[in-house]
């Protein structure tokens, strides 16, 4: 379920995280994707489906962001599966969360997904 954080909400990484791939699926709102029923069961996170975009890039896509239209599955909103690498102590601004992942922005402006288990709200970080 999509949750949008209040502006300025920050968290700190409690452990390191390495993103699994550098050029994952990225699609615009309304774009069609092809789900892969053989790879989709390969995650322990509910709510994510492995999909391929028209350009051949693949990645996990939030199931709740997909809708059947014109005989295809299409994205309700723009989506990129790019994940951020994190180091312990690194602070990020929380944008929104979906099914166990949080979309964050680093101080240098880079954005991407981080598993919520890597992050903890930090009172000092939340104040800005």
Automatic annotation (TrEMBL):
Keywords: SH3 domain
Pfam families noted in UniProt: SH3_2 (PF07653)
Annotated ranges, domain SH3: 11-68
Matches recorded under InterPro entries: SH3-like_dom_sf, SH3_domain
Protein name: SH3 domain-containing protein
